[in-house]
């Protein structure tokens, strides 16, 4: 199953197909109940689901092949921030931040190693 599913109801992303409830809200509620802070995590640039749906958003090497910095089969695509992906990411951020669930977030991100390794065209 690709990385990038949402664990809450969403109009922007795609809710994980096996979830029958709002897992994010349940996790936040459980943390608050015992006094634990619960920041929201969102990957930025690392979203296989978006990459499969939008191949033009994917970082490519100069030879046109997909840039695969992790070299593992379960996660191989990095998304370009100079593509419509950035609008998609910002829309996701606005969606969950406007829900008032939490005041803290952190982002996991990756970028191309160098201009000689990958291109952002």
Describe this structure in words.
With 121 residues, this protein is of the alpha+beta class. The protein has one domain (23-109). The chain is 26% helix and 8% strand. The protein is built from three helices and two strands. The protein has helices at residues 23-33, 48-53, 85-98, and strands at residues 40-44, 105-109. It has a two-stranded parallel ribbon with strand order 1-2. The chain is elongated, with a radius of gyration of 16 Å. It starts with 22 loop residues before the first helix and ends in a 12-residue tail after the last strand.
Summed up:
This protein is elongated. With 121 residues, it is of the alpha+beta class.
Q: Main attributes?
A:
alpha+beta, two-stranded parallel ribbon, 26% helix, disordered C terminus
SSE layout and pairings?
Elements: H1 23-33, E1 40-44, H2 48-53, H3 85-98, E2 105-109
Parallel strand pairs: 1-2
The main pleated sheet reads as: 2 strands, parallel
Given the helix and strand composition, which structural class is it? alpha+beta
Task: Spell out the helices and strands N to C.
Answer: HEHHE
What portion of residues is helical?
25-40%
Oligomer: single chain
- Rounded mean pLDDT score: 83
Count of domain modules: 1
- Provide the low-confidence segments as ranges: 112-121
Report the β-strand fraction as a percent range: 5-15%
Overall radius of gyration: 16 Å
Principal-axis shape: elongated
Give the total of beta strands. Answer: 2
Could you give the distance between the termini?
28 Å
Continuous helix count? 3
Largest sheet strand order: 1-2
